[in-house]
Amino acid sequence: MIEIRNLTRIYKLNKKQMKESKTTNPWKRAVDNLSLTAEPGEIYGLLGPNGAGKTTTLRCISTIIKPTEGEIYVGGHEVQKEPEQVREKIGFLTGDIKLDPQFTVDYLFDFFGRLHQVPEEQLIKRKEELFTYFGIQDFAHKKVKELSTGMGQKAAIAVCLAHDPDIVVFDEPTNGLDVITARSVTDYLKKLRDEGKLVIISTHIMSEAEKICDRIGIIIDGQKVIEGSLEEILQETGTADLEDAFFELYSARREEQ
Description:
Helix 9 crosses helix 10 (242-256). The relative contact order is 0.16. The longest helix has 16 residues, at 179-194. It is built from ten helices and ten strands. With 257 residues, it is an alpha/beta fold. The chain is 41% helix and 25% strand. Helix 7 links the parallel strand 7 (167-171) and strand 8.
């Protein structure tokens, strides 16, 4: 279970960032008093425009950055007080953090599996399962820099799942992938969900969220504007699909400002 209580994350902008944002305020509130709960056995989708705070939220969950205010509990452990216990429970993937290009997929899988203290026999079985599913057996001894974008993404997913975590946190897992590779990734996320694991993803692909997410939270300007199942969101916004619902909420937000 992931429970976020009043998460706020504030950054200090440099002069270049202030100029790009067309602001004289050096402080940016990337996430603003955000609360949500995600349960085991579900895929929770975090949606929002660029700069909404999705990645910041997932990085706070994953202990990569610290909240400015608020608390986050992952599997009963608070991210700032018990970061090591949190890391044991999660698999985290983001496009901004790459596998070292000089190493092979096989080496990296073993390295991270042993880092998580996975027993050797279990690690071998885990590798066979994941490499077979994602079709990377023939590329296992290639260096990461020699892989295509799609194969590199599948390798990164396999590596971050080496320790069979109970909670999976993926930041835009299908971004830049072709339709076949993307489908293999989303099918695996559903498989994890069906095994009782908690999957939380960010995505800007509305059709993808419609197909795989059990519950959805939409954040704009760092604040949650709606949360619920697809049916609940469509009913509340009076729209026919998630894209229309998103634009309805986004337009309403802009009119308030």
